[in-house]
Amino acid sequence: MKRLLWFLLPLFLFLLVTVFLFKGLYSDPHERDSMALERHFPPFKLPDLMDDQISHTNDIFDGQMTLVNVWGVWCITCAVELPYLTQLSEEGYRFVGLYYDQDLDPDFGEKTISRVRTEVVDMLGRFGDPFEFNIFDVYRDTSLDLGVTGAPETFLVDHKGVIRVHHLGDVNERVWNGKFLPIVKTIENELAEERIN
């Protein structure tokens, strides 16, 4: 009996590892469980990227659906998605940027805020500007609270400040129609019902 167990144990471990690897082979790297879903957007008070005299708080979500896009000028994929986000903003969808710059971190080098602003204006001028405004996530605290792992990432926040969608990677037509639009329609219906009542 003991010999049989010693024989079956490696076989069992081999099968367990095989199943684990096989599952990973067919999983989508952009799909993962988000700890932020169905929770209120974390509390924040952060400056506007272009004017540090203006502060933004969670009040930006009161009564309106908002798409919060985490981005930076250093992010190539962000540049790729900007034209499509701009098209969506022209269709009436509200975008707010949550901006952070790696180069302001001493570990990455030195950069002044005026240089960051110049780079932002240049990039948005070339690829499109979907943003109503940009929040400057100076120390990336809000990004960390949201569970952001990189850029771009987009959060659909409803009119009550609750995160309904968290998407890793660029938002393109396929992602918008398959992942965002059904929830957007649900939120629009909720808003319409609240206005009637």
Structural features, described:
This protein is an alpha/beta fold. The protein has one domain (35-196): 3-Layer(aba) Sandwich (Glutaredoxin). It is 43% helix and 17% strand. The chain has five helices and seven strands. The chain has helices spanning 2-25, 76-90, 113-127, 141-146, 173-196, and strands at residues 45-47, 55-57, 66-71, 95-99, 131-136, 153-157, 163-168. A five-stranded mixed sheet has the order 5-4-3-6-7. Strand 6 (153-157) and strand 7 form a beta hairpin. The protein starts with a helix and ends with a helix. The mean pLDDT is 87.
List the helices and strands and how they pair.
Blueprint: H1 2-25, E1 45-47, E2 55-57, E3 66-71, H2 76-90, E4 95-99, H3 113-127, E5 131-136, H4 141-146, E6 153-157, E7 163-168, H5 173-196
Parallel strand pairs: 3-4, 4-5
Antiparallel strand pairs: 1-2, 3-6, 6-7
Key descriptive features of the protein:
197 residues, alpha/beta, Glutaredoxin, 5-stranded mixed beta sheet, 7 strands, 17% strand
Strand content: 15-25%
Radius of gyration: 21 Å
For the largest beta-sheet, the strand count, sense and barrel status come to: 5 strands, mixed
Strand order of the largest sheet: 5-4-3-6-7
CATH architecture call? 3-Layer(aba) Sandwich
CATH topology: Glutaredoxin
Number of domains: 1
* Category by helix and strand content: alpha/beta
With helices defined by DSSP (H or I, 4 residues minimum), what is the helix count? 5
Low-confidence segments, ≥5 residues, pLDDT <50? none
Total strand segments: 7
Query: Which outline best applies?
Result: globular
**Could you tell me the mean pLDDT?**
87
Distance between the termini: 72 Å
User: What sequence of helices (H) and strands (E) makes up the elements?
Assistant: HEEEHEHEHEEH
Supply the CATH class: Alpha Beta
CATH H-tier superfamily: Glutaredoxin
- Helical residue percent band: 40-55%
